[in-house]
Amino acid sequence: MCVNDGRSTIIGESISRLMLFLGHDVLKLNHLGDWGTQFGMLITHLQDKYPDYRTVSPPIGDLQSFYKVVLLVLVT
């Protein structure tokens, strides 16, 4: 682990404090780790399922649900 691994945590904490100050409800979740594999799987599935994704925006407003499908398709 290097100093850069904490950068997103510091930025996220700063933003969450600002949002709390402004009166918003904030749910703080943090994950430290390598996201390369996860994003690679998302991109692979996106290319397979929506081959024209560069010209037509795919209906993936809920990335968490999309990721769950990716896990079922690519990992099992």
Give me some keywords for this one:
single chain; 76 residues; 3 helices; 55% helix; mainly alpha
Question: Describe it for me?
Answer:
- With 76 residues, the chain is mostly helical.
- It has two domains: 1-33, no CATH class; 34-76, no CATH class.
- It has three helices and no strands.
- Helix 2 (36-49) crosses helix 3.
- The protein starts with 6 loop residues before the first helix and ends with a helix.
- The model has no long low-confidence stretch (mean pLDDT 85).
List the helices and strands and how they pair.
Layout lengths: L6 H15 L14 H14 L13 H13 L1
Helix pairs in contact: 2-3
Concise summary:
The protein has 76 residues and is mainly alpha-helical.
Radius of gyration equals 16 Å
| Overall tally of structural domains | 2
Poorly predicted spans: none
- Would you report the number of β strands? 0
Shape: extended
End-to-end Cα distance, whole Å, is: 30 Å
Figure out the total of helices: 3
Range of strand content: under 5%
- Helicity, as a percent range: 55-70%
Class inferred from helices and paired strands: mainly alpha
Q: What kind of sheet is the major sheet?
A: none
Rounded mean pLDDT score: 85
Determine the oligomeric state from the structure. single chain
SSE arrangement, N to C: HHH
